[in-house]
């Protein structure tokens, strides 16, 4: 622990100290199958790393991709397994003890899995005391010579002091004697008396040197201790005489005083004058503590035990007045454990459940305190959900310093719990209280008399009436009120209860409605979301299936096609080939028949002749086979040639058909041309005829009229008439004369026709 100098730090904080002491040095631990592995590595005085062992659930989660296998944590200070008790005390709570002596409140609690060494850290062994006997040693060394010798001023309620009358004083002394005599009866030895402790108080911390200014000699101190446990969420006084078999231990209540400070009502306080006496009381209390043998620890603390020291600061008069009360509590928390791992059943299971619940609430409070440092967040801290946190509340809310000691062991078998503890403490370390811790002046201490009525009150503003009007003090100690006040209070409370119930009912209804609506909305959203996802998934599947189906179809088609072509290639034989082959086979059969017949004829001749004949036959057969092969070869060649020829033919056929087409076209053209020419020729003939007629007419006109016979003209044979004769076979006389205009037109057209 690094108990920081609070003068220089404007806030108190939960100091965390790591003490991985237990497992490596445990020799009598019942968990004999625990394996010490190198899963805890102290990197330096503030950092420790945890490597998840193979079989831990952290490692299994890590392999599934959840979380990490290596975790690092920082603490105010880390102590290794070789640390001695004095070193640990010096390095941790010594400063807190000094502050306590000077009037500040302090809380130290040890946290860790079962069997991690929490009790050992606080109490130590008979020969080597833990932090508690050492703290008391520092206290008594500090107030040496200024101890108030009487015990008539006794702690009362949360912060007050009761002045005992002589009868009460006698009773007090008797109680103390009875307590110590019970120790003698049991023959118990003190576990860690001051005589066993090595000196741990340096002269510098003695009270007169610091803290009380120049008037320190004017004060004297009275020291009181109490020891109680919280077992299954019940508070028991460990200094109560242990009841006989049939009797039950009386359960104590936790109440709040007028300042809202929780305290254990009817808790027994014993005045002590030395560390030795304190250690005896510790021993007596331990006897009543709920211990049990578990699989992990044969003396496992099944409860949270709290040893408290109250220091009354008194004036140095004979009839002193109280200047203040400071309190230091050392809490040994029950070990957190996993029930299935520790094979806890029955009563142990119930205890474990309660232990884990209260530790869980402690964790929740610490987490909420951390959150409340952020002003935007809800700062509700569930202190009232467990007895333990109710009692810790003042220390977390500025009534003093809190120091957490985290004990771990290096057993791989408890790795997961150890990791949980480390995570918890990592959160606790971040808690910084903004309320300044106060010393003796924090709240005025009142001295009350036998009946609980105030005798001296330093702060006159606070009275019982104020107490009654304080709505928040619902769990105040009503036993200090008069009967009349009590009745009044009961009536008030009844009314308050009724109103509260009504408002809670309305609130509950409202919350239920809101929750219902929110859940309905959530379900609708979920349904929508799922149906959308379902549709998407369906579409995607369908697409995938279709594409796969297509692929398979194509593959099957290709395969079938390939197979068919292969088969066709293998088995195809043309008709010609087939016929040729058949002829050959027939030929061969005939030949064989002939040979057989020849063989039959030769059978009568001698053996030599037969073998000769056989040889000849064999040769013939060989020759035939050879010929067959050759003919096969020829056939194959022919087949190939035929194929080539077929291809060529197909090509030629195509070519020919093209040419044929072109020729036909040309023929058509020529025919058209011939037709045109024929038309022309016909027209030319007609023209020539008409020219001839005209010529004849002209000639006729030039001559004097001869006798009719003499004037008869001889028919002229021209080129046109020859053509006409050849083409038509008969000369034709045109009777009509074409107009000149028309003939010109035709002549003009001729070149066009000839061009065509
Ligand atoms: N540093 C240490 N050196 C030697 N022995 C130790 C050390 N720490 C613990 N032990 C021994 O280990 C055993 C278990 O320790 P302890 O009872 O203190 O554990 P615990 O954390 O209080 O367990 P639980 O939560 O179950 O009560 C005890 O026998 C104790 O003496």
From TrEMBL:
Q: Which is a Gene Ontology cellular component entry for this protein?
A: spindle microtubule
Q: InterPro entries given for it?
A: KIF11-like, Kinesin_motor_CS, Kinesin_motor_dom, Kinesin_motor_dom_sf, P-loop_NTPase
**Is the keyword Nucleotide-binding assigned to this protein?**
yes
Query: What does the UniProt keyword field contain?
Result: ATP-binding, Coiled coil, Cytoplasm, Cytoskeleton, Microtubule, Motor protein, Nucleotide-binding, Phosphoprotein
In its UniProt entry, what is this protein called? Kinesin-like protein
Family in the record: Belongs to the TRAFAC class myosin-kinesin ATPase superfamily. Kinesin family.
Q: Where is this region: Disordered?
A: 705-739
- Please give the organism: Leptobrachium leishanense
User: Which spans does this entry mark as compositional bias, Polar residues?
Assistant: 719-731
Q: Which residues bind ATP?
A: 112-119
Where do the coiled-coil regions begin and end?
480-510, 575-697
Source organism phylogeny: Eukaryota, Metazoa, Chordata, Craniata, Vertebrata
Q: Name one Pfam family in it.
A: Kinesin
**Could you state a single Gene Ontology molecular function term?**
ATP binding
**UniProt cross-references to PROSITE patterns, sorted A to Z:** KINESIN_MOTOR_1 (PS00411), KINESIN_MOTOR_2 (PS50067)
Please give the biological process terms from Gene Ontology that the record holds: microtubule-based movement; mitotic spindle assembly; spindle elongation
Where does it reside?
Answer: Cytoplasm, Cytoskeleton, Spindle
Q: Where is the Kinesin motor domain?
A: 1-431
């Amino acid at each position: 622990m690094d108990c920081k100098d609070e003068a220089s730090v404007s806030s108190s904080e939960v100091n965390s100290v790591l003490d991985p002491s237990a497992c490596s040095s445990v020799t009598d631990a019942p968990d004999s199958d625990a394996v010490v592995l190198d899963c805890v590595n102290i990197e330096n005085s503030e950092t420790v790393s945890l490597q998840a062992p193979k079989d831990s659930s952290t490692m299994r989660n890590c392999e599934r991709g959840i979380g990490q296998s290596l975790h690092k944590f920082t603490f105010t200070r880390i102590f290794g397994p070789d640390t001695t008790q004095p070193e640990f005390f010096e390095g941790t709570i010594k400063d807190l003890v000094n502050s306590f002596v000077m009037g500040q409140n302090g809380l130290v609690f040890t946290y860790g899995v079962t069997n991690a060494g929490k009790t050992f850290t606080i109490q130590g062994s008979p020969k080597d005391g833990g932090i508690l006997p050492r703290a008391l040693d520092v206290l008594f060394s500090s107030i040496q010579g200024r101890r108030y010798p009487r015990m008539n001023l006794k702690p009362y309620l949360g912060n007050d002091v009761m002045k005992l009358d002589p009868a009460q004083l006698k009773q007090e002394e008797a109680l103390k004697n009875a307590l110590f005599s019970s120790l003698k009866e049991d023959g118990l030895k003190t576990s860690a008396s001051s005589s066993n402790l090595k000196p741990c108080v340096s002269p510098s911390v003695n009270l007169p040197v610091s803290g009380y200014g120049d008037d320190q000699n004017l004060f004297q101190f009275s020291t009181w201790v109490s020891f109680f446990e919280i077992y299954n969420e019940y508070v028991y006084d460990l200094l109560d005489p242990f009841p006989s078999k049939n009797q039950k231990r009386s359960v104590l209540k936790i109440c709040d005083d007028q300042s809202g400070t929780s305290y254990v009502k009817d808790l027994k306080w014993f005045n002590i004058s030395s560390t030795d006496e304190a250690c005896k009381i510790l021993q007596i209390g331990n006897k009543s503590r709920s211990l049990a043998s578990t699989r992990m620890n044969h003396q496992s603390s099944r409860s949270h035990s709290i040893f408290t020291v109250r220091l009354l600061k008194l004036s140095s008069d004979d009839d002193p007045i109280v200047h203040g009360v400071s309190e230091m509590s050392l809490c040994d928390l029950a070990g957190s454990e996993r029930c299935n791992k520790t094979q806890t059943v029955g009563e142990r299971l119930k205890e474990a459940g309660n232990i884990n619940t209260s530790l869980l609430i402690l964790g929740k409070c610490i987490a909420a305190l951390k959150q409340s440092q952020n002003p935007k967040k809800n700062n509700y801290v569930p202190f009232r959900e467990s007895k333990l946190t109710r009692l810790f509340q003042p220390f977390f809310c500025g009534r003093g310093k809190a120091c957490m000691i985290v004990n771990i062991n290096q057993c791989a078998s408890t790795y997961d719990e150890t990791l949980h503890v480390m995570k918890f403490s990592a959160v606790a370390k971040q808690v910084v209280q903004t309320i300044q811790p106060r010393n003796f002046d924090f709240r005025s201490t009142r001295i009350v008399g036998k009946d609980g009525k105030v005798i001296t009150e330093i702060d006159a503003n606070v009275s019982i009436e104020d107490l009654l009007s304080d709505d928040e003090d619902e769990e105040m100690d009503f036993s200090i009120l008069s009967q009349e006040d009590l009745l009044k209070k009961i009536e008030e409370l009844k009314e308050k209860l009724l109103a509260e119930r009504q408002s809670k009912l309305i609130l509950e209804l409202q919350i239920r409605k809101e929750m219902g609506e929110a859940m309905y909305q959530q379900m609708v959203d979920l349904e929508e979301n799922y149906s959308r996802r379902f549709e998407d998934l369906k579409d995607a599947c369908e697409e995938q299936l279709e594409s796969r189906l297509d692929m398979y179809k194509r593959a099957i088609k290709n395969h079938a096609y390939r197979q068919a072509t292969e088969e066709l290639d293998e088995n195809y034989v043309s008709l010609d080939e087939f016929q040729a082959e058949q002829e050959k086979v027939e030929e061969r059969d005939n030949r064989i028949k002939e040979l057989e017949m020849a063989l039959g004829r030769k059978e009568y001749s001698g053996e030599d002749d037969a073998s000769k004949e056989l040889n000849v036959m064999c040769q013939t057969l060989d020759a035939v086979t050879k010929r067959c092969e050759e003919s096969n070869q020829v056939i194959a060649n022919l087949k190939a040639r035929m194929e080539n020829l077929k291809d060529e033919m197909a090509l030629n056929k195509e070519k020919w058909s093209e040419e044929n087409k072109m020729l036909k076209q040309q023929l058509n053209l020529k025919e058209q041309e011939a037709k045109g020419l024929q038309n022309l020729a016909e027209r030319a003939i007609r023209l020539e005829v008409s020219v001839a007629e005209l010529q004849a007419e002209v000639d006729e006109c030039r001559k004097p009229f001869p006798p009719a016979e003499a004037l008869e003209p001889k028919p002229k044979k021209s080129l046109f008439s020859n053509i006409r004769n050849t083409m038509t076979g008969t000369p034709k006389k045109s009777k009509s004369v074409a107009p000149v205009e028309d003939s010109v037109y035709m002549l003009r057209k001729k070149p066009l026709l000839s061009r065509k």
